[in-house]
Amino acid sequence: MAFSPRVFSGIQPSGDLHLGNYLGAIRRFVPLQDTHETIYCVVDMHAITVWQEPNDLRRATREVAAAFIAAGVDPKRSIVFNQSQVMQHAELAWVFNCVARIGWMNRMTQFKDKAGKNSENVSLGLLAYPSLMAADILLYKATAVPVGDDQKQHLELTRDIAAKFNNDYAASIAEQGLDPDFFPITEPLIAGPATRIMSLRDGTKKMSKSDPSDQSRISLLDDADAISKKIKKATTDPAELPVEVEDLKGRPEADNLVGIYAALSDKTKAEVLAEFGGQGWGKFKPALADLAVAQLAPMSGEMRRLIEDTTTIDGILRDGGERAAAIAEKTMNEVRRIVGFIR
Ligand code: TYM
Q: Do the beta carbons of residue 316 and residue 69 sit within 8 Å?
C-alpha cells in the first residue's frame, strides 16, 4: 500500500522561539500545505522532559501556535494542535518504549548533550524522548518530516522503531489483515540553506533557546530595532565576502550570515554570493538587516497580537486536537489489536 503524502512536525514550547526554529522548520511548513496533508504540533509533553513552570508552559504553547499562524500556517488547511490534548501520543509512546532498546536511546547525541555529566539525575522522560517523538510521527503514519539538521538522529531512530515494530509484529499484522508495512519508513525533510543556523556570537555554536546570551539569537518576538541591532553586531571575520560558495568553508560566521540571507530571500548561497561576493560587511550587514526586518518584524507583530487573543488560539488548538485525535484513534485501534490488547 502506498501511504498518502502526510507531513508531521513539532516544536517544543520551552523558551523563546528563534530564527533557527523559523528558518529550519516553521517557514518550511507553509509551502508543504499545497502538496501534503499537514499536521503541526506544539509538543508540550516533550517540553516537560525538563522542568517548565506551568504558567510559562501555557504561555509558550500559545506562542508556538501563534508563530505557526503568523508565519502562514492556515489552521483550516493544516491541523494545528498541542500534543497533550491527544492522549494517543502517550499511549503509542509506551508501546514504542517496549519496542526500542535502551542502547538506542543512550546513543542519542542530544540526550548526551542535555544530560551532560548529570545523566543519572535527569528525568526518565528525557531518555525516552525519541520514543515519544516516533509516536508523534507514526500515529499519523506521516511520510515526511520537515526539521532542522539537529533532529536527524531522532528521525533515524523513528525509522528504526517503525521497522522493528513492523518486523516484531509481522505475524499479528498479517493475522489482522493489515498492510505488512504497517508503519511507514518516514522521510526526513532536511534541506535548503538554513538547516543549521548558528549563534550570532559564535559561528561554531548552534543558535539555541538555551544560550544564555540574548545577543546570540534573533527571537521571533524581537522588534525591528532589536533585529537590526543584533545583525549589525553579529560576530564576523575581517575578510570580505567570497565569490564562491566553496570559499565559505572555514568561515563559519560568514557562512551562517549568507545562509540566513539565502533562506530569507528564497535564494541559494551561490545566488547571494553572486550579488554580494567581493563586498565588505559594511554593505552586506545592512542589506541583511533590512531583509530580516522586512520579513520578521510583521510576523512578530502578528504573533504578539495573537498571543493576547487566547480565546482564538485556544479555539484553534482545540479544533486541531479533535481533528488529530480522529486520525490518531484509528491508528491506535489497529496498534491495540496488533499488540494483543483486549478492549
Ligand atoms: P525543537 O523544539 O528544539 O526545534 C524545533 C525545530 O527547529 C529546528 N531548529 C533549528 N533549525 C535550524 N537551525 C537551528 N539553530 C535550529 N534550532 C532548532 C529543529 O530542528 C526543529 O525542526 N524534538 C523536536 C520536536 C519534536 C518533533 C516531533 C519534530 C517532537 N516531536 C516530531 C518533528 C517531528 C525538537 O526538540 O525541536
A: yes
Nearest CA to ligand 1 atom 33: 9
Instruction: Give me the domains of the chain, ranges plus CATH numbers.
Output: 6-195+310-339 (3.40.50.620), 214-305 (1.10.240.10)
The CA 192 to ligand 1 mean position distance, Å, reads 15
* Chain segment 120-137, per-residue pLDDT in tens: 999 999 999 999 999 999
Residue of 209, 267, 269, 330 with catalytic role:
209
**Is this prediction's pTM over 0.85?**
yes
pLDDT over 70 at 1, yes or no: no
Nearest C-alpha neighbor of 154 from the set 193, 176, 183, 186: 186
Q: Under a CB-based contact definition with an 8 Å cutoff, are residues 56 and 296 in contact? A: no
Annotated active-site residue 283? The verdict is no
Give dist(CA 227, CA 335) in Å, integer: 47
Residues with CB under 6 A from ligand 1: 8-12, 20-21, 24-25, 43, 46, 133, 136-137, 145, 147-148, 150-151, 154, 194-197, 206-207
Annotation marks residue 206 as catalytic: yes
The strand ranges marked E within 25-171 are 37-42, 79-82, 144-146
For 241-299, what is each residue's pLDDT tens digit? Answer: 999 999 999 999 999 999 999 999 999 999 999 999 999 999 999 999 999 999 999 99
- The whole-angstrom separation of Cα 58 and Cα 13 is 8
| β-strand partners of 40 | 9, 80
